[in-house]
Amino acid sequence: DTGVSQDPRHKITKRGQNVTFRCDPISEHNRLYWYRQTLGQGPEFLTYFQNEAQLEKSRLLSDRFSAERPKGSFSTLEIQRTEQGDSAMYLCASSLRSGEGYNEQFFGPGTRLTVL
Amino acid sequence: GQQLNQSPQSMFIQEGEDVSMNCTSSSIFNTWLWYKQDPGEGPVLLIALYKAGELTSNGRLTAQFGITRKDSFLNISASIPSDVGIYFCAGRSTDSWGKFQFGAGTQVVVTP
Fold first, then answer.
1. Which of B31, B50, B103 has the CB atom closest to A42's CB atom?
2. What is the mean pLDDT of chain B?
């Protein structure tokens, strides 16, 4: 399977615990995105990387959230001191930035986080 | 938060009918993407649009990039039961080369 993969698919945690999610993009895709989606809403942008550089972060990304893409391949999203409001689907997407600006994003299956 | 207005919010149609939905933005976009999402899964890309006025088809799906560059439309012809799902538009404005904004989705229910 050469699509975007995410791990784990589901995570249940207690309030106050830290969680970390992993995303493996499509091979050779240089851009990687993180989104958060709650029930009945479309995905909300959190942050994106071009290679290993984090180019943009949403105001939604509080200081409890941190994302990394150390070698420009896989990425991790960590949430510290989780709160019940963090319960959501966390989606990762990747794309290949071309000189002509074409930028189709392909999503992974998501990680469903439930904070008790 | 989201800045795209997607409508309708939901549609209940009979098998064989056509479906139309649209998205509008307050700013000029240079890219529109349309996705379909099934419960518990990530969105699946259906169609990508890059030029004003562009009309692109993918099987029974047809999408258009509005001439004003502030809207886009998706049509599904001759709907079948597997068209059930939530359809999202996503757009990228000219001042943001990375970030995409999403609509709230259109839920499509197809009855036999």
1. B103
2. 93
Cα–Cα distance for residue pair B85/B106, rounded to 1 Å: 8
Is beta strand A10-13 parallel, antiparallel or unpaired with respect to A111-115?
Answer: parallel
Summarize pLDDT for A10-43 with one digit per residue, the tens: 999 999 999 999 999 999 899 999 999 999 899 9
Q: What are phi and psi of A13, to 5 degrees?
A: -140, 165
Q: Is A59 left (phi over 0), alpha (psi -120 to 50) or beta?
A: alpha
Q: Provide the pLDDT for residue A96.
A: 86
Partner-chain residue, chosen from B2, B43, B50, that has the shortest CB–CB distance to A44: B2
- For a pLDDT cut of 70, what percent of chain B falls above it? 96
Structure-token pair, residue B20: 């139309």
Chain B partners of A106 at a C-beta cutoff of 8 Å?
A: 45
Q: On the CB side of B32, how many CA atoms lie within 13 Å of its CA?
A: 33
Chain A residues with CB under 8 Å of B48 CB are 102, 104
